[in-house]
Amino acid sequence: MKSLFALGVLAAMTVTISAENLRWPAWRGADGSGAAAGGSYPAQLGEKELIWQTELPGKGCSTPIVWDDLIILTTPLGEQDGVMTYDWKGRKVWEATIGPLRKGKHRNGSSSNPSAVTDGKRIFAYFKSGNLAALDFKGKVLWKTNLQERYGKDSLYWDIGTSPVLTRDHVVLAVMHDREGFLVAFEKVSGEVAWKVARTYKTAVEGDHSYATPHVVERDGKQVIVVWGAERVTTHQATDGKLLSECAGFNPKAKSNWVVVASSVIAGDMVVVPYGRGSHLAGVKVGGNGDVTKTHRKWERGDNKGCFVPTPAVHDGKVYVLGDRGEVHCLDPESGETIWSGNLPRGAQSYYSSPTLADGKIYAAREDGKFFVAEANKDLKVLFEREFGARIIASPVPVGDKILLRSDTHLMCFGAK
Hints:
The structure is a single chain. This protein is mainly β. The protein has a domain of 215 residues. Helices cover 5% and strands 41% of the residues. It has three helices and 34 strands.
């Protein structure tokens, strides 16, 4: 790693990057797809492509976000939940502490699993401790609260995974565990609670636990929040959280431990739902009112070609599913039919990081720190593989023709120099 560091320092002295189009404002990007709309991205992430790297202060599993000239990530800072920012030369711009952290307990977890989110005016960050804060772009904490002090400590088996999402007026959190599931919205400016609605359902053991992140979509000029968890896809009015529709039936045999880890994705007007610990996928059409289980559940497949931990990506009208053991399936979201399938190299450990699509390539990491770049087509030709020597749980971020990659120990930036 010493040679990588030296190369990164040398490159950081000369690199300059335009701030235009440098935006990845949420965990899976602006549209939640996990894909870059355009750009030219490196097929190799080796020493030659390393622009810079910086050592991080502690273990955090959240994916960095980007707004113009600022790279933003949640991280432990000593015994505190923190937010750190870097510029495009890899230099720390500022750091801010939010409150006492609560340590992760899973080998692939941390106190800082949720990614921050921004609307370009404020940065919002959420942590396993329940701390939620709004910051300005100079690092000043504008307001903060603690969901667990307000509403009770979470009872998830493992570490909180859901990231906050933004509507026009609010920052929204989905809390789903076996005490009380709910959605809560806070005013962006003041931090006051705008609304809170219950989302509590009776399920088999662990079925009401969810680590998934919701979506915010536009429908007929209005914003709708789409939530996956507790064996249901629900939609809610963004202004007040009112339940609009509910699609159930995702555990007909009431199996225990069918916990939701991977988030759903939205392709057009279809919500693609991974469930059954990687054994099932379903397609639910957004819309309708009341119980839409019979009318809006358009397809399902139980052929063990789903995903348990990695969230799928969406690009060019297709859904890309990465299974925990490296299976890749490209699907038609309207029918659920397979367009093509392939396999990334299998190892002793699983794929945890969610895949990223950019420039016709799939970027994917195994939990043991093995990283792969492959052609995003039926050949799935592996273009590059590398052992990074540290666990990689965060998703790769493609922005400004660069790839940002976070491991347990470092934040790295790759691209043409």
